[in-house]
Amino acid sequence: METHLHALVFLLTVILLSVSCARGKQYISAVGDPGMRRDGLRVAFEAWNFCNEVGQEAPGMGSPRAADCFDLSSSTLKHKVTEADNKLGVGKPFPGLPPGAISNADLYAAQKELYLGSLCEVEDKPNPWQFWMVMLKNGNYDTKSGLCPQNGKKVPPFSPGRFPCFGDGCMNQPILYHQPTELINGDTLRGSFNGTYDLGAEIGGGLGGISFYEVVWEKKVGAGSWVFSHKLKTSKKYPWLMLYLRADATKGFSGGYHYDTRGMLKILPESPNFKVKVTLDVKQGGGSKSQFYLLDIGSCWKNNGDPCDGDVLTDVTRYSEMIINPATPAWCSPKGLENCPPYHITPNDTKIYRNDTANFPYGAYHYYCAPGNAQFLEKPVSTCDPYSNPQAQEIVQLLPHPIWAEYGYPTKQGDGWVGDARTWELDVGGLSSRLYFYQDPGTTPARRIWTSIDMGTEIFVSDSEEVAEWNLSNFDVILT
Ligand SMILES: *[C@@H]1O[C@H](CO)[C@@H](O)[C@H](O)[C@H]1NC(C)=O
Ligand SMILES: *[C@@H]1O[C@H](CO)[C@@H](O)[C@H](O)[C@H]1NC(C)=O
Ligand SMILES: *[C@@H]1O[C@H](CO)[C@@H](O)[C@H](O)[C@H]1NC(C)=O
Ligand SMILES: *[C@@H]1O[C@H](CO)[C@@H](O)[C@H](O)[C@H]1NC(C)=O
């Protein structure tokens, strides 16, 4: 009897939790909270230095990992993460922390993410899930610090000049303020993370001259989607900043990580069988260098097609991004073939080589760069920055263009940009199945399983103080 009851409860759970209804049609969502509609929110925060590590904690802030997770019942919020948990930093033990990680800021942060994940975890089928992830990254690199490896290889310090850095401490972690989610006027839930990289700055005294980031989440109880409202501001000392909302894998290596992560993707989407739905309202663009990613998908596989295993010398992070800032030019051109992938594949699976100037869609590609550890690259080629990830990376950056129409992507400059708020239903799986990614000749094509789907902006080295502001809601990953 009890077994039958369990089976019945299990069956009901499967039906209720993994199948949601959209316009009367049933579909399976890959994310824990399809469409961001669950009142009991799960959101976390992480900050990265240039090579996606911590390096050193900011004074008094603890390890730059935090979370806001709660359940709502009869108008009461039951928070699952305390402010003491959020302030945990090197030297302070917590359940599950391996002894070797207690005094190493990088290892500690990775373990803290797992710990916060254990507090936030929601049981679900086929897998439990933990949280949406707010990711903040500082693009300063102190080349004299020797902190970042080169394509995964440890290298000695080198002369400055190539990367922004104002001097000692330019790779610091930010100040983080957390407003825990609260119920306002009995019907609205709201909370936030904000702060600055400028240690010692008073953000209450105005933002002139300093960097700033903020994510506010808000929702009407029992109705609609959470709205995540983002703001990112650069400054002279911090001219290159990134802020994303990520749906990461609930275990394994998410895009850009080389250690176990926690996240929202209870099922990992695989090309070509998934779509992404999201509402984006860009209020301020962040200047001409703001590479606003309508979507950034990230994964990891080796050049021989094998899945990554944490060996940073052979693992390669793979990214593809659609940049919707109309100020972003196509560096890929008949005269700049090194910035184009070797070929483009049309929806009807025709290959067009980049030297086919009559047919190659140059305007559809901002920039392509190949993994720095690939051995059989087609020349001319541009290799990706070897320092900004823990391992080699490959990046395919797209621009709005008519050839993407088939996949529901932006087809012209300005689509989805300031004043053109939209709900997108992007055939990310279809498009990503036809993008060029490098592989060693004669090897079995990698399975394109995406461990991160992110949205937000990367304000690239800017001369002036730039501000980007946008709202994101209704995020879903739909398996097709
Ligand atoms: C940052 O968040 C805090 C609450 O945690 C709030 O009091 C403050 O006004 C925010 N700062 C700015 C500049 O918005
Ligand atoms: C964006 O989010 C902010 C904060 O939740 C909200 O005040 C604002 O009305 C939102 N804007 C739109 C257009 O939804
Ligand atoms: C495939 O599409 C291209 C244009 O995108 C077109 O020129 C070509 O004729 C098509 N080929 C087939 C076999 O349909
Ligand atoms: C164009 O590139 C392809 C692939 O690299 C090559 O096989 C072909 O010979 C090139 N065509 C011309 C006209 O250079």
Automatic annotation (TrEMBL):
Which Gene3D superfamilies does this one have?
Glutaredoxin
Superkingdom of the source? Answer: Eukaryota
Q: Which CDD domains match?
A: GRX_GRX_like (cd03031)
Provide an example Pfam family for this protein: GRXCR1-2_C
Against PROSITE patterns, the record matches this protein to: GLUTAREDOXIN_2
- List, alphabetically, the InterPro entries matched: Glutaredoxin (IPR002109), Thioredoxin-like_sf (IPR036249)
For this entry, the protein name equals Glutaredoxin domain-containing protein
